Amino acid sequence: MWESIKGRYLEEMADSGYSGDSIGAFHKFTVPYLLRQANTKTADVVLDVGAAHGHAGISAYSAGYRNVQIVDYDDSRFSKFREEYGFECHQVDLLKQPLPFEDDSVGAILFFETIEHLLDPTNAVMEIHRVLKPGGTAFITTPDFAQVGSLFYEDPTHVRPFIKQGMERLLRIVGFERIEVKRWGTRYGMARMALNERFPALNFIGTHLIGIATKS
Asked: For the segment 29-61, what is each residue's pLDDT rounded down to a tens digit?
């Protein structure tokens, strides 16, 4: 069944105007901003986990991070990632498979808008903690159920809502000690006007959450 519909979700995203060919100003600014704030080196391995169309990974690559690697269950975009960016790609079932990386080997992980698609995200977050090197940071974004309410289910593949306290607890449970969870996203067309670049705090007023968890 999965093989017959593989790629259909990404096609649906593209039909809605959300594809790797239409990366907006928000991602282009915030992804490298977050990596710089975390002191991620441009030579570090940066994983885009649950990459979909690659908004996070491509934004990192465009900012000079050249060791970007892709992790996703759906491999239908892998050939594009390899041919256009030279990304190494890994097909992984985050519900039950380990990430194909050694312990303490990854500089940063971009886990954007994926955790809400996993009924039980524990394995994925445990693996993220395992492969991060000490001082490495994971950035986890998801809709804030306290903000979006029933609109969360406009996407039929959303199965696991989060609020701030729940994300904080999950990150603590898997072993993170340095944790910050806050609002994520900009509003009122600020990214289109580049106001979010002049005032970075404007990137943290939206209806989503970002968990920033650094491994000790």
From this structure: 999 999 999 999 999 999 999 999 999 999 999
**Cα–Cα distance for residue pair 172/75, rounded to 1 Å:** 31
Q: Are 87 and 56 in contact (CB under 8 A)?
A: no
Specify the CATH number for the domain of residue 94.
3.40.50.150
**Amino acid at site 106:** V
The range of the structural domain enclosing residue 81 comes to 2-214
Distance of CA 110 to the CA centre of its chain: 4
> Into how many domains does the chain fold?
1
CA 85 to chain centre: 18
b/e sequence 37-68, b meaning 16+ C-beta within 10 Å: ebebeeebbbbbbbbbbbbbbbbbbebebebb
Contact yes or no for 117/20 (Cβ under 8 A): no
11 has a pLDDT exceeding 90: no
**Alpha-carbon span 30 to 165, nearest angstrom:** 23
Is the Cβ–Cβ distance between 176 and 214 less than 8 Å?
Answer: yes
